[in-house]
């Protein structure tokens, strides 16, 4: 949904104190510091270059926290309160956003924004929408009365691209693009599961003519109307609602939005388009237990995937099944160092097992050999 005068209603605060290992129940408060009104330390051109934040620390050079300078946009329908910088913390490699709603409907939400603005490219986050659990290894209870959001935003929705999950409708992510507060295209994406119960990968690919929305690596929705053009700050927030129409009626208590990582890949790197999965820069995320499907051919000879080792590391196996003939390769984080290859010939399943380091990133390449094969690729073992 649009955030009318949203950034005018918050003062972003840089995080001068690291929040590393701060428990979600007692996060470190962050002192305020002024930055430019448009929410960026450099209000000129979009920033080039890929990055990924695994939240081993809270990067004060990338992120700023929000604190309400006056009434936040969500404070209506009986709700009062503010954005609370102390409701943002990092714990055990996860970003934790906390929402507190009291019985009298006074509330404290959580929000952070990149200091820099970014333009066309691929935006991705792996997160678990709001529930009562602050522990990534334990499930909690989702309930009505909140919105978990991963989005970009600038200048009263001159650009706004969203993935948003309502507390009252946790099997759906709302995927939309805004060019102004009145020119937009928003639609529901069914997840087929309660998004507050597990981590899922949310992504959009933004070009000058289209925005494509993905959930867990699968294209779910595309829009070619009202495509925004202005560079924008990348943001995450968790905020309360008290409406049957959006978010649901308030549920007093404390909830947590957990974020495993956030990444950005610009649409052009060194003059080469990077959004296509034909390059390592544009690789689609491959997760343990979530097979991906695709097709390669003489005119589209390769697809790339990225996987991340779990916190323990160890042995990881990637498997490829196809009706005709494709080969399988696994690469180190540089996308160039070959760690393993399987090329058994037509209609044979391929499998590569490699040793992986804790929390390290690896790349998988599916390579066309003959025919026009569709395929399924999967990962298991020490993989997130």
For the secondary structure, the number of strands is 28
CATH topology of the largest domain: Jelly Rolls
Low-confidence stretches: 2-47
Strand content: over 45%
The backbone outline, from C-alpha atoms, is globular
Q: Give the biggest sheet.
A: 17 strands, mixed
CATH architecture of the largest domain: Sandwich
The SSE string, one letter per element, is: EEEEEEEEEEEEEEEEEEEEEEEEEEEE
- Count of helical stretches: 0
Salient structural properties:
17-stranded mixed beta sheet; Jelly Rolls; hydrolase; hydrolase activity, hydrolyzing O-glycosyl compounds; 50% strand; disordered N terminus; 28 strands; 384 residues; Glycoside hydrolase family 16; mainly beta
Secondary structure: elements and pairs:
Elements: E1 10-14, E2 51-53, E3 63-68, E4 80-83, E5 88-91, E6 94-101, E7 106-118, E8 121-131, E9 146-154, E10 159-166, E11 169-178, E12 184-190, E13 200-206, E14 211-215, E15 218-223, E16 232-240, E17 253-266, E18 268-269, E19 272-273, E20 284-285, E21 292-295, E22 302-308, E23 314-322, E24 325-331, E25 338-342, E26 350-356, E27 361-370, E28 374-381
Parallel strand pairs: 4-7, 20-22
Antiparallel strand pairs: 1-3, 2-17, 3-7, 5-6, 6-7, 6-17, 7-16, 8-13, 8-17, 9-10, 9-16, 10-11, 11-12, 13-14, 14-15, 18-19, 21-28, 22-27, 23-26, 23-28, 24-25, 24-27
Domain GH16: 35-270
GO molecular function: hydrolase activity, hydrolyzing O-glycosyl compounds
Protein name: Glycoside hydrolase family 16
């Amino acid at each position: 949904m649009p955030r009318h005068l949203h950034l005018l209603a918050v003062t972003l605060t840089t995080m001068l104190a690291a929040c590393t290992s701060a428990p979600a129940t007692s996060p470190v408060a962050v002192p305020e510091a002024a930055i430019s009104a448009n929410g960026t330390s450099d209000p000129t051109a979009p920033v080039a270059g890929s990055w990924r934040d695994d939240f081993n620390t809270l990067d004060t050079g990338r992120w700023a926290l929000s604190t309400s300078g006056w009434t936040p946009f969500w404070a209506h329908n009986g709700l009062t309160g503010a954005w609370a910088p102390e409701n943002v913390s990092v714990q055990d490699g996860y970003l934790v956003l906390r929402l507190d709603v009291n019985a009298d409907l006074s509330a404290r939400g959580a929000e952070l924004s990149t200091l820099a603005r970014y333009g066309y490219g691929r935006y991705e986050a792996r997160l678990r929408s709001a529930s009562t659990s602050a522990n990534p290894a334990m499930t909690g209870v989702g309930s009505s009365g909140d919105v978990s959001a991963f989005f970009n935003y600038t200048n009263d929705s001159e650009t706004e691209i969203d993935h948003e999950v309502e507390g009252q409708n946790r099997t759906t992510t709302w995927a939309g693009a805004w060019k102004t507060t009145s020119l937009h295209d928003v639609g529901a994406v069914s997840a087929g599961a309660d998004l507050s119960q597990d981590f899922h990968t949310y992504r959009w690919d933004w070009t000058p003519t289209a925005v494509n929305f993905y959930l867990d690596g699968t294209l779910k929705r595309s829009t070619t109307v009202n495509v925004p053009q202005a560079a924008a700050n990348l943001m995450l927030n968790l905020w309360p609602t008290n409406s049957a129409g959006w978010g649901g009626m308030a549920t007093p208590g404390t909830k947590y939005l957990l974020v495993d990582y956030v990444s950005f890949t610009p649409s052009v790197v060194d003059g080469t388009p990077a959004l296509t999965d034909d390059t390592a820069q544009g690789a689609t995320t491959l997760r343990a237990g979530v097979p991906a499907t695709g097709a390669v051919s003489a005119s589209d000879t390769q697809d790339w995937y990225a996987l991340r080792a779990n916190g323990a590391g160890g042995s990881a196996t990637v498997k490829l099944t196809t009706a005709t003939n494709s080969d399988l390769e696994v690469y180190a984080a540089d996308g160039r160092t070959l760690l393993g290859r399987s090329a058994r010939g037509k209609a044979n399943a391929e499998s590569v097992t490699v040793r992986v380091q804790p929390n390290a990133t690896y790349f998988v390449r599916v390579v066309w050999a003959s025919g026009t094969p569709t395929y399924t690729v999967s990962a298991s073992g020490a993989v997130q």
